[in-house]
Specification:
single chain, alpha+beta, Transposase Inhibitor Protein From Tn5, Chain A, domain 1, eleven-stranded mixed β-sheet
Length: about 375
């Protein structure tokens, strides 16, 4: 993969005025990819956060180039990044990069403020929106989380219980683009809904999630933003029916009803979600019956059921992604700074993913990381 990034396409030679043969300069593939990075915006972000003040040996631009080279080239350690860049020093010159030392990259990973890369991602995501993503009204977002057990090296920041350490990854996944659009890492004892409330909401999008995000207040926020939500109702949740739609015979849809959720919650609190919602009972392949709820009162019941079924696609993607981050030969160190850096860079189809973090004030990135 690294060879492809640095490959130069052959062009036909031409004859100069002096009669000598020459060949036109051709940029490498990596150079073409880096042209999509808004470097002027990166400079503004660097100045805003003072990102070059603590790591003068490796400025932010060269740091980003090194990390992207490692990610797109499939490197599994800092040593591979350093060795690969050293072997291609002349070609990297034309993209503004240069060979780096392993300790220098490690120090930059530890000292450089992580929001620099998060804000750069937000700027690049707007570019992708114009040509790659579907209209907001058709955008589907699957939300889920996965816990990952860590070793005792992470005990100072990722302790879940006595003798058990771990992190939880929170993903907003785009099934059409087949990649995440938002990624957050927390300690494993952080509730899913706590992380969800900090996620940015895309107006007009469709959000699909499970029972871990059971919060009427958050559902109301989605509804206020013009979003469609699709999730499950608990078995014991009351539902006041005002209208019942017809369902097809010999279908896995048992019932399709419109009504209201409980008007009052615990301690006589008013339910913030006062709009009519729709309950669809569906039987899945295992024979289990689910109560699906949505604020979409018009779409076919089969479409709503299919949207919820898509949620399992995110589990497959998370397993693939975490296997790369956690099982890459044991070369990554388990510190909060590493997780933020690694998840920032993890992507598919040459795309980046958004990253946030919650309350993980941890140790410095291990400077001895291979």
């Amino acid at each position: 993969m690294a060879w492809i990034l640095l490959r130069i396409e052959r062009l036909a030679a031409f004859e100069t005025r002096k009669g000598t043969h020459a060949m036109q300069h051709q940029n490498i593939v990596f150079h073409s990819l880096l042209k999509h990075v808004p470097w002027h915006r990166l400079e503004q972000i660097v100045e805003k956060h003072g990102a070059d003040e603590l790591s003068r040996k490796l400025n932010t631009k060269r740091h980003l180039i090194a990390l992207l080279y490692g990610q797109l080239g499939g490197a599994t350690s800092l040593r591979e990044i350093v060795t690969g860049m050293e072997s291609q020093a002349t070609r990297l010159y034309h993209v503004g990069g240069a060979p780096v030392k392993r300790s220098t990259v490690s120090d930059a990973n530890s000292d450089r403020p992580w929001p620099v890369f998060g804000e750069l991602f937000a700027a690049m995501l707007k570019q992708a929106d114009r040509g790659l993503r579907r209209a907001a009204g058709d955008a589907v977002r699957l939300i889920d989380s996965t816990s990952v057990r860590l070793s005792s090296l992470s005990a100072d920041w990722a302790t879940f219980s006595t003798g058990v350490c771990g992190v939880k990854t929170h993903i907003v996944y785009d099934p059409h683009a087949d990649c995440p659009v938002y990624f957050a890492v927390t300690a494993s004892n952080v509730n899913d809904i706590t992380a969800a409330k900090a996620m940015p909401i895309e107006a007009g999008a469709t959000y699909v999630y499970d029972l871990g995000y059971y919060d009427y207040g958050w559902w109301a926020r989605l509804d206020d933003a013009g979003c469609r939500f699709v999730t499950r109702l608990k078995k014991n949740t009351p539902f006041a029916v005002v209208h019942e739609n017809r369902v097809r015979k010999n279908s896995n849809i048992v019932s399709d009803r419109i009504g209201h959720l409980p008007q009052r919650l615990a301690n006589s609190r008013k339910n913030p979600l006062q709009v009519p919602v729709r309950e669809i009972k569906v039987i899945i392949d295992t024979g289990k019956m689910l109560r699906i709820v949505t604020n979409d009162l018009d779409a076919p019941a089969e479409e709503i059921a299919e949207l919820y079924k898509q949620r399992w696609q995110i589990d497959i993607d998370q397993a693939w992604r975490l296997s790369r981050l956690c099982c890459g030969g044991g070369s990554w160190r388990q510190s909060p700074r590493h997780w933020r850096c690694a998840h920032r860079l993890e992507g598919r189809n040459c795309g980046l993913i958004g990253v946030d973090e919650f309350g993980a004030a941890g140790t410095d990135f291990d400077k001895a990381a291979a």
